[in-house]
Write a structure and sequence with these properties.
six-stranded mixed sheet, alpha+beta, 9 helices, elongated
Length: 368
C-alpha cells in the first residue's frame, strides 16, 4: 500500500489547453478516494498522470513518499482499470489474469495461486477457460479488476469502471468494490461522474471542475456544506434547488415566498443583509407535515409533473407566481395533478445561501 501526493500538478497540452491546473491532493495510505466531476473536468487526466500514462507539465507526484514524475508506468507499482475493460480478446480469462505476472517472470506456482485466489474472491473461478467474447459485461469487469488485483500493487486506479454496466450490475459492483477495499485495505483512486458512486463508495470525494479542485471532503461533509453553487447543484440526485432571493436581516424572500430566518442564521448571514443571494433548498427538506421539523415555514408549490420512482416520488413544481422550477422528494404515495397546489413545510435549519456574484457559500453555524 502507499500514499499518493499531488503537489501543484499541471497538465498543459501543446495546443495550449490546460487540462489540469495547480492540483494539490494528498491521498492517504489505504484510502478510497473518489475523483468526481462532469466530463472534461480533468479527473481522468489526473488519474492518468498518477498512472504515468500522461506526462506532468509541472508539479510533483509522489507515490509511497518517492517522487515518480519521471518513473516509467511499469515501475510505479500501480494498477489501472479502464472503462472499456481492455481485455485481450484472444486470451482466456486465466491468461488475462496472469498476463502481468508472466511479463514480470513470476514463478508459475505463485501465478497459479494468485489467479485462483482472486478468481475465487471475485466469483469468476468457473470462467477461467472462457474468452472475453463469451462473458457478460459484469463478468468482463470482474476479470479486469482481477487482472489488477493479482499484481498486488501499491494502489488501484479505476477510470469509470462501472459506467458500461446496467443499473443493477452497477449497484452490485459498487458493493463488491467496497468489500474488496475493506478486505485488501489498498489505496484506491476511483474516477466517476456518478454522484451515487461518489456518495456510497468513497471515504473522501474530490470534486473537480475545469481542471481545478473545487472541494475535498467526506461524502456527507461535502453534501451538507457545499463550498459553492457548482458543488451544491452537482452532488446528489436530484441536486439542491438554487433560487434567486433577497436577504433581509430577519428573513429571505424568494419572489412572493417569505421565509423567516432562525436566530443563529440571522447572525451568520448578517454581512449580506439587504443584498440579493442564491438560496439553496434541498429536495428532502420539504415536508408535508407541519411538525416534521422543529423550525419550519410553509411554502406553496404548484405542480408541474411528478416522477414516480417506486420508493419515492419526485415532485417538479414552481413556487407561487414564479416560473423557476424546483424538485421535492415526496412519500411514495404522494400524487399531484399538473397545476395543483400543495403546501409544504420547509425545514429552515437546512437553509443555505450563496453569494450571487462569487457563487461561494455563506458560512453557516456548526449547530443551529
Amino acid at each position: 500500500m502507499a500514499s499518493i501526493s499531488l503537489s501543484n500538478i499541471h497538465k498543459l497540452y501543446p495546443n495550449g489547453y490546460a487540462a489540469v491546473r495547480d492540483v494539490s491532493l494528498d491521498i492517504r495510505d489505504g484510502e478510497f478516494m473518489i475523483l468526481l466531476g462532469p466530463s472534461g473536468c480533468g479527473k481522468s487526466t489526473t488519474l492518468r498522470m498518477i498512472a504515468g500514462l500522461e506526462t506532468i507539465s509541472a508539479g510533483d507526484l509522489h507515490i509511497g513518499g518517492a517522487r515518480v514524475n519521471d518513473v516509467d508506468p511499469a515501475d510505479r507499482d500501480v494498477a489501472i482499470v479502464f472503462q472499456n475493460y481492455a481485455l485481450y480478446p484472444h486470451m482466456t480469462v486465466a491468461d488475462n489474469l496472469s498476463f502481468g505476472l508472466r511479463l514480470r517472470n513470476v514463478e508459475r506456482r505463485i501465478i497459479e495461486g494468485r489467479v485462483a485466489t482472486i478468481a475465487g474472491m471475485l466469483g469468476i473461478g468457473d470462467l477461467l477457460a472462457r474468452k472475453p467474447a463469451q462473458l457478460s459485461g459484469g463478468q468482463r469487469q470482474r476479470v479486469a479488476l482481477g487482472r489488477a488485483l493479482v499484481r498486488e500493487p501499491k494502489a488501484f486506479l479505476l477510470d469509470e469502471p462501472l459506467s458500461n454496466l446496467d443499473a443493477k450490475l452497477r449497484a452490485s459492483m459498487r458493493t463488491e468494490l467496497i468489500k474488496l477495499h475493506r478486505t485488501l485495505g489498498t489505496t484506491i483512486v476511483h474516477v466517476t461522474h456518478d454522484q451515487v458512486e461518489a456518495m456510497t463508495m468513497g471515504e473522501r470525494i474530490c470534486i473537480m471542475k475545469d481542471g481545478v479542485i473545487v472541494q475535498v471532503g467526506a461524502p456527507m461533509e461535502v453534501y451538507r456544506n457545499p463550498v459553492n453553487t457548482f458543488v451544491a447543484g452537482f452532488l446528489a440526485s436530484p441536486p439542491m434547488n438554487l433560487l434567486h432571493g433577497m436577504l433581509d436581516s430577519d428573513r429571505i424572500s424568494i419572489g412572493d415566498v417569505v421565509l423567516p430566518l432562525p436566530q443563529s442564521l440571522r447572525r451568520a448571514f448578517a454581512s449580506h443583509a439587504g443584498r440579493k443571494v442564491i438560496v439553496g433548498l434541498r429536495p428532502e427538506d420539504f415536508h408535508l407535515k407541519a411538525d416534521a421539523a422543529p423550525v419550519a415555514a410553509p411554502i406553496e408549490v404548484v405542480s408541474v409533473t411528478t416522477e414516480v420512482l417506486g420508493p419515492e416520488v419526485i415532485l417538479v413544481g414552481t413556487l407561487k407566481n414564479s416560473s423557476a422550477e424546483l424538485h421535492i422528494r415526496c412519500p411514495r404515495d404522494f400524487r399531484s395533478e399538473p397545476g395543483a397546489m400543495t403546501v409544504f413545510n420547509y425545514d429552515l435549519s437546512q437553509l443555505q445561501l450563496f453569494d450571487i456574484e462569487t457563487t461561494t457559500a455563506l458560512m453557516r453555524p456548526v449547530k443551529i
